[in-house]
Amino acid sequence: MTNIVVVGNGMVGYKFCEKLLAKQTDDGLAGPGRFTLTVFGEEPRPAYDRVHLSAFFSGTSADELSMAPAHWYADNGIQLNTSECVTTIDPVAHTIMTHTGRTVPYDKLVMATGSAPFVPPVPGIHKDGIFVYRTVEALEAMMAWGSVATKAVVIGGGLLGLEAAKACLDMGLETHVVEFAPRLMPRQLDAGAADMLRHKMEALGVRIHLSKNTSEFTGYDRVSGLQFADGSVLEADMVVVSAGIKPRDELARQANLAVGPRGGIVVNDLLQTSDPDIFAVGECALHGGMIYGLVAPGYDMADVVAANLIPNPSPFEGEGGRSAKEFTGFNLSTKLKLIGVDVASFGDPFCEQTPHRPIVLEDKVSGVYKRLNISLNGFLLGGILVGEAEAYNLLLQTCKNRLPLPKHPEELLLPVDASNRRQGAGESAGAGVAALPDSALICSCEGISKGDICGAVVEKDATNIAAIKKCTKAGTGCGGCVPMLNDLITEILKKQGKVVRRVLCEHFDHTRQEVYDLVRINGDETYHEVLHHYGRGYGCEVCKPAVASILASVHNDLVARQATIQDTNDRYLANIQRGGTYSVVPRVAGGEITPDKLIALGTVAKKYDLYCKITGGQRVDLFGARVDQLPMIWSELIDAGFESGHAYGKSLRTVKSCVGSTWCRFGVQDSVGFAIEIEERYKGLRAPHKLKGGVSGCVRECAEAQSKDFGIIATEKGWNLYVCGNGGAKPCWPPILIAKHA
Hints:
The chain is built from 21 helices and 35 strands. 28% of the residues lie in helices and 21% in strands. It has a 5-stranded parallel β-sheet with strand order 3-2-1-7-19. It has a 5-stranded parallel β-sheet with strand order 9-16-10-11-12. The chain is α/β, with parallel strands linked by helices. The longest helix has 16 residues.
């Protein structure tokens, strides 16, 4: 019986437990009962997802961020100790001691202590209102402080710093980012890409301050601002420090284990420390002089240690035994979405020491920057993507596997339609995936190769993403590989001669168009009828709004009476918010409102103690309503002449407008009147997703019509109509559907 103790219950510590259990169950070389597993975590809750920590500010709960509930550990025979800090390691006695005075023996010790935020030793750093962006508890404290703050400054313009900036934006604070380097994300982006990212961040409301060195935090007992070395001052009543990390190696130092000159527990390729019975994984481990600050390398380290701790039945390699698995480094390519902006780098993004020929696409209108580094003999060495990173996975695999580039490699950067590709310009995304070798790593978080995916599809009939996740765990980490998984599944099924159909969801074996045709022909009127006749199960959040839209389109009738199709927001005519309260959003078409209606809004808000906010969509939000108050609130608002603004529904939300020719000296048409006409005409329209529109009175585009689901721009001769511009996309081809409409 091997006693294994894990110090640290973060993402990597949890992943080690998961990997070890999987190998005990599936390897065949280790039966149950070969080891005991004890885990110590100093935080009060089990491991949670730090990668998506900023989602906490947009409503995701701590439980939803959890990697696994506490009972998972107990169900698998793991003794989990939370809120208990290991203070001492005795390598000679093979024991650890916790802050409670408890001593626990071990045969093998795995250190997964992770890292701590680097807090610069600046005078005033300990003032109230200064936080580090690291734990759920820290985020809860930030939210409490942010509720009374107005202006937040984030120290650090790296990955975590920009995530912290998003958190501050989500709290409704004026947000600034201060970076010591002359550009954002200096480790991942070159000057051109960083400049593009900066413009995108500023367009979203984040104010960027580069080449700034903080010399002091001002204020008496609570922070009031930042004093910079150049003499300038930035006022702030909240500061978030996210200036990097430092490895948690204090236990290793206490135990006289080897550590690096700049920190980190020194490990070999087996992840053993200077004591062969003690291993280190994740951000506390220093391998080959490198501290890996990403979760995927930590997961790979966890897998290596788990594989080598499973008993080997033969002491001789090649005689039924297994060679030791080694960690030989990790590719630091990464793709993420920062405040809604795609950012990715892969391979060697800079090629500062390698002869190469760069191909750069810079589109400042669309906010897209792409760079490919091509070797002198024609292979892809690396690259950078900002603003649009759909091709990241394929480019990464092309780089890692030294696949031949198309005749015109610049087309890898262009969204060229297949019908317009030049001869020999390259393959589609699906064909590109099919050309990868079986050893190509598709999911770097879980170490899943193309061969593993193909095997799951062919041998285990895993023909959709949900089944692939269950069989292989691919796509369960950051999720960046999911588009490539879809392409790969499609290609494998095509090779098997199977028909590939884009069904509505797992509850229907029909496409959306087929369900529409069946409903139209057979006259089904309720969701239950549709599900009973053509589907199975109880439905999901994919098929319910789609079927609701189909029913509304076929019968030209309200579907709000069918409670099954409605989510909580639809049922109560309000948006559920953090803490279980609701926001009430009456419609104010065109932004025009009478004094009596304003008084009614104020009266209701004051009576029910609601927080008020005027939205960018020309409506007034009233927050904090209890569910029992909603009928009375709506009764009073309806009596005052209001109706629901459908801010909760899969329907038309709002039609934004500028003041147009009524007030603006540039306006050439009545954009306000047209916006009101459109909003009144299509209010309550049922759709698979929410719809937003915009009407601009001239080409100056103050209503941002081209960034809406549909947009209308005035000309002297009439109106131009654009569609599909939401989410930063360009309006679809042809971009102008109606050139002239009198």
